[in-house]
Amino acid sequence: MKKTIVWLRRDLRIHDNPALWEASEQGIVIPVFIWSKEDEQMSLSSYASKWWLHHSLLSLQKKLYRMGLSLTIRQGDSLDELTTIIEETRANAVFFNESYDSSILTRDEMIRERLNSDGVEVETFNSHLLFPPGILLNKKNEPYKVFTSFWKNTMHESVIQPKPTPVEFSTLNQFLPTLAIEDLKLLPSVNWDEKLVEHWVPGEDGAIKRWQQFSEEGMSKYLEGRDIPSFDDVSLLSPHLACGDISVRSIWFSSKMLLESDSVSYMHSSVEAFMRQLIWREFAYHQWIHFPEIVHTPLREKFEDFPWRDTDEMFTFWKKGLTGYPLVDAGMRQLWETGAIHNRVRMVVASFLVKHLLISWQEGSDWFKETLVDFDVANNAMGWQWVAGSGIDSAPYFRIFNPILQSQKFDGEGVYLRKWLPELAKLPTKYIHTPWEAPIDVLQKAEIELGKTYPFPIIDHSFARKRALEAFATVKTNI
């Protein structure tokens, strides 16, 4: 029988896994995961991402074992390890789902050419996105630079149906040398990761359960809930999508079924808003593939000379949630505790760093890379460039989130603030968004001593806004 190595990467699942499905249809399946130096250099090298990867691999390993397959784990150069396994098994083919990092694409093409020259069949598939990057272009046959136009175009494009889930596999009747997942040393050396277990269930089963719960209970309230950080009406699927625990195509078609089966207008609006977020993710990848410099370099050249005021002290206050602005601090505390941050609050904390503190977006991007379990190179880069105003489709330079008004509007009763800032829990709602305005007796009753138990604001909002506008004025001719 044909023997096919299925090289698993950002696709740690059984359902809608084109490489796995096609291999299962053609003969014996040999699932392989290789931790390479390229992976170390990519998004998977961050603490939070590696923690997630470790547990997703464990989940996949158990699932494959129940289906009669052993997951072979190797570490080293990808081509060397694949060549070794081909020699060990006399495999005829290597199938894998594509990755869209430019350096990885170059490496994968080199591997394809080398294996083909050795007489080994190589097939690749799109699995991580709804539309392979590069196929969606505007009327000028150029990459889209405006999300709204991109979104409208995708509504006229067909998405390939998800592949079925294999019910059985033909297995290799041979033992292969393999590392234990623990040998990859993906878990952080500090105990920070222990608290992540309380908030997440990495892996395919956890992803499917989360999707079912959201689609049945949270989807109908998504349109409103996505902006209210104290609500649980968001999908929480982003880390599963980032690691490939769940298929974006399966989510897309399930969402379309909800859209077509429910005539209630508010449900329709919520489903469409959710699907729009899936397309926002696509837009990020399509930008990344066309403009790989987006990860570290502003796409608007004028921003290379932006007058940033990077300071370690202010950056530390921001990272630790000690800015004196409750919504910003609550978001950064949530990030450190859970490895995630509510999307509305994510925009506010990013804006605060870039526009209130004038600290470069690259600094914030690097911190998110280390701490977000849902870190995704394309999404993260586009999000930060959007906030900074340096991307191709970005927030206007004069859009400076007021952290006080954002807090009052989206967490009026202070539920989110009290959860993540317990030192402010006893403060009356009237002052929860601006503790520095509370009278002394109110602060004493709430057991708060500003400057000790909770900081004064590290910068005045009005001053910061004026300073930011002056800084952006130096580059706005190109915005």
Automatic annotation (TrEMBL):
- Keyword check for Lyase: yes
What name appears for this protein in its UniProt entry?
Cryptochrome/photolyase family protein
The Swiss-Prot or TrEMBL record describes its family as follows: Belongs to the DNA photolyase family.
Keyword annotations for this protein? Chromophore, FAD, Flavoprotein, Lyase
Q: Which PANTHER family match?
A: CRYPTOCHROME, CRYPTOCHROME CIRCADIAN CLOCK 5 ISOFORM X1
Name of the top EC class for this enzyme: lyase
Superkingdom as given in the UniProt entry: Bacteria
Q: What EC number(s) would the UniProt record show?
A: 4.1.99.3
Instruction: Report domain Photolyase/cryptochrome alpha/beta positions.
Output: 2-130
Give the protein's cofactors: FAD
Does the keyword Flavoprotein feature in the UniProt annotation?
yes
- Give the matching InterPro entries: Crypto/Photolyase_FAD-like_sf, Crypto/Photolyase_N_sf, Cryptochr/Photolyase_FAD-bd, Cryptochrome/DNA_photolyase_1, DNA_photolyase_1_CS_C, DNA_photolyase_N, Rossmann-like_a/b/a_fold
A GO molecular-function term, please? deoxyribodipyrimidine photo-lyase activity
